[in-house]
What does this fold into?
Amino acid sequence: NCKVVDGLSSVNLGATSQSTTAAAASTAAATSTGAAATSTAAATTAAAAATSTASATTAAATTSAAAATSAADDAITTRVKGYIDAGTCSSVSANTNCGSGATSYYKSFTYNGKNVIISSQVPDHPAENDPLVSNPNTRCERWQYVVLPTDPTKASTGVATRLGTTGLAVTGGAFFNDLSSPSGDLALFNEGASLDSCLGHSAPGGAYHYHANINCTNAGAASGSTNPDTCLLIGYMMDGVPMYGFCKDSSGVQFKSCYKLTATASTGTVETSSGTYSNIGRTQSDYEYDSAAFTAGSCQLDEGNGAIHPTTGKYSYFATVDYPYVPIFYYGNEGKKTECSAA
It folds into this structure.
C-alpha cells in the first residue's frame, strides 16, 4: 500500500520563504499524488489480471471436468443417456452374438438422480460349460437398461415377482425367480441338472440367468458371493433394492430364509454341477412363510428375502442357502421398473 502525503507545514520566515515553501509543498504534493495514482492504477491492473487468470483457471477446470465426464461415457452409455432424455423405452431382444462370441457388459451409474444399469445379459465368467444335462439354449447379447431409484425403502407390502428378469447381476447376467413355469413348478427341482456350476443357464431367446446365488468359484465380478463374511453386492432387483450374496447379520449370524416346507409337501432330490439338493420342494405350494420363526429370531428375512443391511443400514435382499434362494417378492417402495432396449 502507498501512503499519500496530503501537504507540508511551512515555517513563517517571510513572504519569499513562504512562497518558496508553498511552491515546494505544492510540487511535493503533486508528486505524491501522481505516485499514488500510479500505484492505484498498477494495483487495479494487477487485480484485473488476477481476476482474468482466475476466470481462465476456472474455465479450464470446467472444461477439463467436462472432458473427463465425456471420456468416461462409452458409446453405449451415451446412447442410453440419449434414450433416457428422449423418454425412449423399446422392448429388449437378443441379437445374433451368442455363446463364446457374446460380449459381457455391466455398468451402473447415477444419471438425473437415478441409478441407471446397462447390461448385455451375458456373464463375465465361464458359463454353460459344465451342466450335468445339456441345455439346448445358449446365452446371447440382450442389450438393456433400467432406470432405478437410488435409495429405495421398504414398502408396507410386497408384490410377487413373475417369470423373466427380476434383477440384473454385476456379472452382466440376470436373475430369475424360483419358478420354472406359470403353474408354480420350481426351477431348481425341474431345471437343476441343466444349470452350470454358477447356478445359471439360458432361457429360449438367449436370456442367461441365475436361479440362486452365484455359487461358482470363478464368478467374475461376483467372486466371493458365497462368503458370508464378505457380504458381496451381486446386483440390483428391478425395484432398485440392492441384492447381496450370502451375508451375516449384525450379530454375526448368516441370514437365513424364513420359508419352510408345508406338512403336505412333495419333495425330492436334485443333482446339479454345484452340488446335491436334498428334500426340496417340487412346486411353490410346497413352501410357506414361517412368521413364527421370524418373530422368534430363528430366521431373519422377510417374504422377499430382505432385511436391513448390517453395514449400510439400508433395506436389501440376500441370497440364501435354502428356498427361495433369491428374492421372490418386490418390496421396494417405488415398485418394479421396466427394462428397456439399449441397442
About this structure: The CA atoms of residues 106 and 119 lie 5 Å apart. DSSP finds four helices and 18 strands in the chain. The first strand starts at residue 106 and ends at 111.
